[in-house]
Design a protein that fits this description.
217 residues, alpha/beta, TIM Barrel, eight-stranded parallel β-barrel, 8 strands, 53% helix, binds SN-glycerol-3-phosphate
């Protein structure tokens, strides 16, 4: 499973990239707001850190304007993935932009049918939001699993990019049900290293090592 990092924090992206943890990056208008930076400038810097797909989202509501924004965003770098919302206009923009050879990420997906039509419109990635379904007492992971089955049933090549990933458990479940990619904030990716028994074991090793009175260096 590929790891995308869901942030515009370039220091965090660099740190994870140095460890081989970044196969791509995803952003959205809320993430750009949080960064406090200009969308073109920060996206260009992100594209200089990773050669993997970097999602940059359009903000218009009609297809024509989305296509124009997508073309402008795609000029930033070769690895830009234009992110469009899962609306009828977003699907029109997806069809045109993917037809021009651009990578397209269709976002805000909450149902199997939405994922099905995004694939038919030529999406490179479909982004189902796990956490936001869990928030309203629906099962986000079940959606990932159902989309996997439908895409496999018909051989769709659209990659399932699990988004709104909030916990280490979400990451493990995504890998188990066969998501192609998951995108998560840096803190969630870093938390994958944590285990209470690792901490407990290390504490005991430290105590026992001190008792030996030895040094390695
Ligand atoms: O990848 C989508 C993400 O940015 C949304 O996450 O936690 O706001 O639902 P969240």
């Amino acid at each position: 499973m590929k790891f995308f990092v869901d942030t515009a924090d370039v220091d965090a992206i660099r740190e994870l990239n140095d460890l081989g943890m970044v196969d791509g990056v995803t952003t959205n208008p809320s993430i750009i707001l949080k960064s406090g930076r200009d969308i073109m400038e920060v996206t260009r810097e992100i594209c200089s850190i990773t050669s993997g797909p970097v999602s940059a989202e359009v903000v218009s509501m009609n297809a024509e304007a989305m296509i124009a924004e997508g073309r402008k965003l795609a000029e930033i770098a070769e690895n830009i993935t234009v992110k469009v919302p899962l609306t009828w206009d977003g699907l029109k923009a997806c069809k045109v932009l993917s037809g021009e050879g651009k990578m397209v990420n269709v976002t805000l997906c909450f149902s199997v049918n939405q994922a099905l039509i995004a694939a038919k419109a030529g999406a490179t990635f479909i982004s189902p939001f796990i956490g936001r379904l869990d928030d309203i007492n629906l099962d986000g992971m079940e959606l990932i699993s159902d989309i996997r089955q439908v895409y496999d049933n018909y051989g769709f090549e659209t990659q399932i990019l699990a988004a709104s990933v909030r916990s280490a458990n979400h990451v493990a479940q995504c890998a188990l049900v066969g998501a192609d990619v998951m995108t998560a904030p840096p803190a969630v990716i870093k938390a994958l290293a944590n285990h209470v028994l690792t901490d407990k074991g290390l504490e005991q090793f430290e105590k026992d090592w001190a008792k030996t009175g030895q040094k390695i260096l």
